Description:
Elements: H1 2-31, H2 33-58, H3 63-95, H4 100-120, H5 137-146, H6 151-170, H7 174-226, H8 232-242, H9 249-265, H10 269-294, H11 302-337, H12 342-348
Helix pairs in contact: 1-2, 2-3, 2-6, 3-6, 7-8, 7-10, 7-11, 8-9, 9-10, 11-12
Amino acid sequence: MIESKVRMDVRMLTWFTGILAFVVLVWVAKSLSELILPVFVSFLIARLLRPYVTKLTKKGIPHALSILIVSVICALFAAGVGAVLGYCGVQVAEVIPGYAPAIANSIHDLQDLVAEFLGTIGGSSTTFSEPSKLLDAEKIIAMVTGALGSTMTALSTSFMIFILVLMILGAGDSFSNAVLAAYGRERHKKILAVVHETDEKMRRFLVSKSLVNLLSGIITAIIGLAFGLDLAIVFGVLTFFFTFVPVIGGIAALVLPMAFAYLQFGAGGMLIGIVIALLAGDMIIERVAEPRIMGKSMDLAPVVVILAFLFFTWLWGAVGAILAVPVMAMIKVLCESIPKLRHIAMLLQEH
């Protein structure tokens, strides 16, 4: 009886300690997000790039040169992404001002509909009798074009992440040696096997997800070009990036080109055609391409995805929204690899 009570007390103490540690960890991650987030992203990127460095080293290329080659390729890729985003920014800055009257009229029509609805249900419509300050067309245009200035902050953060990735890759086998010294040779092999399996599954997930998003972006751009939609390529690029964000990303990727088609063509046959084409393309991606390319690489329950999206968005903002699904997938893979945590993995996966 006493022994059973002691076990219960120890179990309760373990749960309490774990919850307290989690709360402290979240508080630190939230309070020091400007410092922790770049380090966390750098660690993820370094883990994804490390196998390529290892392959080059095994081919006889010096370790330092292997790191340099992989880093240069990544820098060129990042520069290409930056050039594409810069092109999109220029296109938006040139095209959007010409739609200012249409945007203003649409906002006024929306305000009239809201006012009419409020009047129907007995609410006050005085708030919407004048153009809303929150929906002022000039402010929306200023926000869209002014967002280009934030690229300087993103570039500085990206440079810091690049340096951190180089430092982590340059550390070589320090992590492996530390695990060997701390746990011995037998547990060292098991721990490294779990780490390598997690890295490999995460890499496959990110590559397959990127391919699906790229295909989705190409389809969006082709549909836009076929219908003569302005900023068709921009919407294709936005679709690629937006669909990394769970829950609302895919919705935004569909709504934005549809809303812009309404501004350009009005409520006519062209708008209906674009809407049908975009919905059909999204259905093809979701029902045909995504299952074949990704398979069960994510396999997370929808509730888990939504909760992870809300939590990481609160924790780290837009970057957290993008990292939500990859981090949860990594946690699931890690739990699958540890026998005592497999029940947690079963709770996270889709049934």
